[in-house]
Amino acid sequence: MASVTESPISFPNANCSTFVTSLLSCSHPSYVAAGVIAVLSCLLGIPTNVLMIVKLSSHLRGSSMTKRLIFNLALSDLLSLFCLVIAGAIFATGPRLTHGLCQLFFFVVLFCITSSSNILLLISVQRYYQILHRAKWEKVTRAWQRVLLSGVWVLGALLPLPLVLSLTDKTSGDAASGKTSCRTKMIKPQAEAVHVAIVMSAQLVVLVFYVKLVRGVRKVQMSDKKKQKINRLFTRILAVSLIDFLPLFARVVAVAAHFTHSKTLYDVSRNLTSIEYLYFLNHCLNPLLYFFASRHQLRDREKKRKLFLMALNDSS
Questions:
Q1: 12 lies in some domain
Q2: Does 13 map to a domain?
């Protein structure tokens, strides 16, 4: 979950005057760990998501809802990681921007992150009905599928608006000049508290659907080998979804610290900075969980089909 009390991404050097001093004065272990996680997320996540987009882009026309969902997920993940790179540069160098430009920057970052979470929610619902209630899912026409896909992006644009509109300056010293650093901006804790509650509710929905899916697969009549493969895949997805609660917990602590002005909570929140950055590792794991695992299953089916055809040719 993105850090939004001070900025949509809680950069380790957000309270440092320059990039050089950040290397000297912002060496808290949690900040260093957060920086390492951010760099690894970008180095691993950007190439894998680009590969997903390239592989899927030529097969989208007339493709299934699953492929289009995975394509949209890769796109939102890629945009989120690009935003992470740009945000890192902005918060490191601290350029002087107008309040409107800072709002626009915050909005783009939150829009990408929220859209990615919304798509994951839709994937969990879609897979539950497609596997366990296939007859109901087949009633969802192409037109409604497009509406659902468009809806997650529209919702991703609407949910960050209260956060962006509540953006204010932490200090009023530079506000009179009309240009400030985005590092000095903060989002009101009341707005973030509501946003965190919405995100946690959505995450609970994802967990509920995957738990029901894992339980339901055990009752479906299919080969034990196929059941084991499906259970392994969805158990991994469920585990990653559970990890998403760690960044949310860190944000709850940060919001509580802002409400109570407790020095202890502020210290705890600072120590949890690296935990928040675990969220961005999902953008590396999503290609492995949602795309390459499916490709592996497709290759297995293709091999079986070829072996079957070879057997038919031999018998003839």
A1: no
A2: no
* The amino acid at 234: F
Alpha-helical runs (H) found in 58-160: 65-93, 99-132, 134-138, 142-158
CB 18 within 8 A of CB 94: yes
- Does a structural domain hold residue 1? no
For residue 247, the one-letter residue type is P
Give me the pLDDT at residue 179, please.
Answer: 62
Q: pTM of this prediction?
A: 0.77
Inter-residue contact 11 to 3 (CB < 8 Å): no
Q: How far apart are CA 39 and CA 37, in angstroms?
A: 6
In a domain, 50, yes or no: yes
Indicate the residue type of 107.
F
Asked if 91 contacts 183 with a C-beta cutoff of 8 angstroms, the reply is: yes
Q: Give exposure, 195-232, as e/b (b: 16+ Cβ within 10 Å).
A: bbeebbebbeebbebbeebbeebeeeeeeeeeeeebbe
Separation between Cα atoms, residue 279 and residue 241, nearest integer Å: 10
Three-class secondary structure of residue 99 per DSSP: helix
CATH code of residue 43? 1.20.1070.10
Q: Which residue has the tokens 């192409």?
A: 142
Percent of the chain with pLDDT over 70: 75
